[in-house]
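Changelog excerpt: complex records now keep ligands as SMILES alongside chain sequences, and the structure block spans every component. Example after the change:
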Amino acid sequence: MSNWKKFTSEARIAYFSMEIGLSDDIPTYSGGLGILAGDTIKSAADLKVPMIAVTLISRKGYFRQKLGQDGSQQAFPVNWQPEAFMELLPVKTLVTIEGRDVKIQAWLFRVKSPTGGEVPVLFLDTDIPGNSGQDRHITDMLYGGDLEYRLSQEIVLGIGGARILEALGFNIRKYHMNEGHASLLTLELLERVRHPVEDTWDERASWETRQVIEQCVFTTHTPVAAGHDRFPYDMVHRMLGEMVPQPLLMELVGQNELNMTLLAMNLSGYVNGVAKKHGQVSQNLFPGFEIHAITNGIHSFTWASPYFVRLFDKYLPSWAHEPELLVRVDHIPAEEVLDAHLGAKAYLFHYIEETTGTRLDLDTLTIGFARRFATYKRGNLIFNDLQRLCSLGAGKLQLVFAGKAHPRDEPGKELIQKIFHHKEELKGRIEVVYLENYNMDVAFRLIPGVDLWLNTPVRPLEASGTSGMKAALNGVPNFSILDGWWIEGHIEGVTGWSIGPPATEIVPDFNHTAEDAGDLYDKLESIIIPMYYTDQAAWIQVMKNAIGKNAYYFNTHVMMRRYVTEAYIR
Ligand SMILES: *Cc1c(COP(=O)(O)O)cnc(C)c1O
């Protein structure tokens, strides 16, 4: 029974995201951006924020990763059945792509909170009889295909998404674009507003854009110009036609190409970066805009391991609804924090043995690193000087890695192979494990189960980072480059440790590898390894501080309350 209509009575925030990661069963995400979207929606449901989310069905997912003996990556489509989780709505809409009518349908998934809150999520789908063979595949592959494929996806997401909301009778009070992929929705909104009286072209255009600006909120996630989606005008013109007059479009986004980030910025009344530093970096990339910074978070209940859920329930009841209560972590006895952690560690090690055959040692300091294998994240920084690493860490360290490289990112794939190579070189001295197919399920086991969470990006390219927040919540201290959220969460020796110099750069600095690695080794050798093995009380206090001074704040409940008060209700 389709009773989506119950969601249409109240004015809602429409949250648009190319990817949304809600659970591993619904593989419509690739990494941090999608999981942030999923966590945001879950917090909105918990807090009863009237929201409706819109994304693509991605019938073949992102991809499933298989790794050869030498770490060579193979990518396979993920086949899944939307009908097992979602309800197909009986309303369709149309967009025009290259002059062809493309029909769009939507699957409804309900994110239900124990508080009684509920957020509907629409998954857009073009796999409909009547669409051309090519068009039926538009919503298949997340981040797959060429530039034209990407533009068709963004037409479906932005324009199709706005249209289906209208067709279903939703009443939207704000449109929130999570990254620039959805920003074509602003053109659809521009088409809808018409100045009531005939003025000069200029006055009318400026009145109309103001109406759209009032309705839109934009969050940018990318700290480099090259990372923003851009399409040549001739392609846009050919595929999209002339939705708004070309002169107005050029005024909004420049003369040469359609930059999706610029489009969103020019038509949003509130623009946000994902951490304080990223706000400044974006301000530098886009002078003339006012860029705010509401730092990202994680959905606490989703990312706490069962061991910590039990512990928090016992000592800090209602923490899941009010993660700020984690500030009172010192009420929890040290032994119980340690026990919960050892539970999570044993659970991970069991999984590692099952999947890789390697048996890790429960008493050895275990460092985790897992994220997308993009080269700027420098997954191999810890191997920069193998001799040094061995001399300080042989017999005292274990390393656990995971992560996918985008199938077309050759340097990213090579990075994975390099780690496999180092794994062989270090055999018998430092055990290195690489877990295949990093996804939400692997992250849920891996992050809470290591002792220290490592992040080594090139400053300032880690816009926020969220896996470190998942670690902190589970009492796993961060050991990271001062970038993204960690600039705000880090108190040296109290919540964890920094690597390298403070974050002063606002342009990428690729030339610090040796210094950063040197600092990493120095701190491991003189501070972290000694504390772990000889001062357990101090170590447990750092674990607690990660919870009480990081996790209490860096969560999507805090983030959502800020979005509501600072961006949505303005
Ligand atoms: C949390 C998470 C990410 C994001 O991690 P970053 O530290 O922000 O790179 C990516 N992938 C998965 C599966 C995650 O759970």
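The two ends are 36 Å apart (CA to CA). The longest strand covers residues 100-112.
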